[in-house]
Amino acid sequence: MMTHSSQQWPEWLPIRSDLSLLTPYGAPQLESKAQLNTNENPFPPSAALVEAIGRKAREVGESLNRYPDRDAVELRKLLATFMSERGKSDFSSENIWAANGSNEVIQSIFLAFGGSGALGFVPSYSMHPLIAQVTSTDWVSASRENDFSINASKACEEIRASKSNLIFITTPNNPTGTSVPISDLERIAQAAAEIGALLIIDEAYAEFSQEDSATTLIEKYPHVVVVRTMSKAFAFAGARVGYLVAHPKVVDAMKIVRLPYHLSAMTQAIAMVALQHRAELLLSVDSLITSRNKMADELGKLGLPVLPSSANFLLFEVNSPSLVWKSLLDEGVLIRDVGLSGYLRVTIGNEAENALFISALKKSLGGQK
Ligand SMILES: Cc1ncc(COP(=O)(O)O)c(C=O)c1O
């Protein structure tokens, strides 16, 4: 074995020192009867959509010798139409960037704008600080109130005192499910403008919320960037499609940092098929909201306090989260221990999965007495 000085491989693996202690991110991918741990949509695509995707895949297959459209223009046009339909704004493809999941969009934001650091309000989506670290961006964790809300006045003060280029707000927030009113987002946008920072609003779960989307702020506040995904409400997590809505100058910066041909021809094509079926795909949103409210009531009846959720999951209080997590898994129910002391997070599944979760939970709580 080759050595570097006197060390044996892999001790001298030249990984960056700031990464050497990190472990790969990711929820356990375990076999289970009810997979309620990654906030996916439980409803698979309809037979008609699977058929349409298959036809499109065959068509695209015939030209896979060619690179895809580097700028995914047709997909971005369709995403702009979708966002314009939902909001009160009129977006074009110039306002949209798309990539392999919103995680890649977020990574590109860090690559382009990380510079003097990023600030976010924790607990929130743990990939934000992790991507900051991987892209060598300093991360500042600002705190939330005891009920996990963001106090807008305090947040504005913290932003004004910071030197960050990027301010992150996730709303509805993961893992808490709570949302930030649009009026507070506007105040926070003003504070971010004062220090010359972009305000990144991660709206991965926006379709499940009654709040207006922060896209309605972009016209007045061109430094507001809204990150969205097709992984949740669209039930398209496996295809890996995320996007942002922003001023065209932000989109121009994405083109500088993206890898050439980052979004495969297959991904672009099937995402467009899914968007053409958007009415059907988004039908699941209302039924998931109904199930979420029902599950919150059931948890309440079991004496477990639940945070108000505007997303497709619930964060609830429980004694001994890791014991409960394990006993649920023994019953075939996989939920998420997000590492918040005294809490567990459960994704809303289909009716059978939700029922299995509640009965396994009753059993687990009974066993603890
Ligand atoms: C708040 C938030 N943002 C972004 C993502 C990433 O989603 P994707 O990369 O599938 O678009 C997630 C995934 O769970 C999330 O919870």
TrEMBL record:
Task: Look up the record and give one Gene Ontology term from the biological process aspect.
Answer: L-histidine biosynthetic process
Q: Which pathway is this protein engaged in?
A: Amino-acid biosynthesis
- Which cofactors does the annotated protein need, by name? pyridoxal 5'-phosphate
The answer on whether this UniProt entry bears the keyword Transferase reads: yes
Q: Which keywords describe this protein according to UniProt?
A: Amino-acid biosynthesis, Aminotransferase, Histidine biosynthesis, Pyridoxal phosphate, Transferase
Which residues, by range, are in coiled-coil regions? none
Identify the residues that the record assigns to the Aminotransferase class I/classII large domain, covering every copy: 33-361
Q: Which GO terms describe its molecular function?
A: histidinol-phosphate transaminase activity; pyridoxal phosphate binding
Protein's UniProt name: Unannotated protein
> Which organism does this record belong to?
freshwater metagenome
